[in-house]
Amino acid sequence: MKTVLITGANKSIGYETARQLLQKGYFVYLGCRDINKGNEAISQLYSEGLTQVEALEIDVDQIESIEKARVMLGEKTIILDVLINNAGIGGAMPQTALETDLSVVTAVFQTNFFGVIAVTQAFIDLLKASPEPRIVNVTSGLGSLTLHNDPSWKYFAVKPTAYVASKAALNAYTIVLANDLRDTPFKVNAVDPGYTDTDFNNHSGPGTVPDAAARVVKAAILTADGPTGQFFSDDNAPDTGISPW
Predict the structure, then answer these.
(1) 163 a catalytic residue
(2) Which end of the chain has fewer CB atoms surrounding its CB within 10 Å, N or C?
(3) Are the C-beta atoms of 220 and 4 separated by less than 8 Å?
(4) What is the band of 147 on the pLDDT scale with cuts at 50, 70, 90?
(5) 140 near 167, Cβ under 8 Å?
(6) Under CATH, to which class is 3-243 assigned?
(7) What is the CA radius of gyration of the chain?
(8) What is the pLDDT of residues 219-228, one digit of tens each?
(9) Cβ neighbours of residue 73 under 8 Å, at least 6 residues apart?
(10) How many CB atoms lie within 10 A of CB 169?
(11) Using CA atoms, how far apart are residues 140 and 85, in angstroms rounded to an integer?
(12) What is the pLDDT of residues 125-142, one digit of tens each?
């Protein structure tokens, strides 16, 4: 049975991603900052007959929490097949380039960028033990520099500085990581789940959570001949579902 760790998975897209992977036969470690909320999510999945799941307390903003989670997971398994870096924040809005407080930028980068690097580095040894390791970084179309420089692409009147920059940095890290692992069985990709109806955006998105999660799952279950170092986005590359940065 393949194993997967999903950060920020006690609700929304992360939770639905867990559900869909459970339905595909994966054993899911459901990462959450609040173990009580994680256990509530576990109870809901159990009620649906999805029992191959455990909550794992992990705060991607805290190195100590990440290290503790790595030790705990290492006591349960010697192999991790999939890591999905899903945890993310938007930060206080609005975020103009000249007026956004540096504390907001720092907080957003801590979760969306530095946290991803810290978690990936902490669990990479367990991933290397898998014959077909997969790393999925949940990003956003807002992190695409190409789209931002396209005058016909208008997403926000005021672009959220901290969030945009953090996801652009995440996209760059995904490319670098995929390159470092290019001669291995790893597949490392970023996924834009789309503008989805979630708490994250005050339920302003038109997309559904199941559809968004399905995009993440698609990258998590890539076969050996699948791409690596790519940006998956059905919304922003509708013809192919995959587009390079």
Answers:
(1) yes
(2) N
(3) yes
(4) confident
(5) yes
(6) alpha beta
(7) 17
(8) 999 999 999 9
(9) 5, 29, 56, 80, 123, 126
(10) 18
(11) 13
(12) 999 999 999 999 999 988
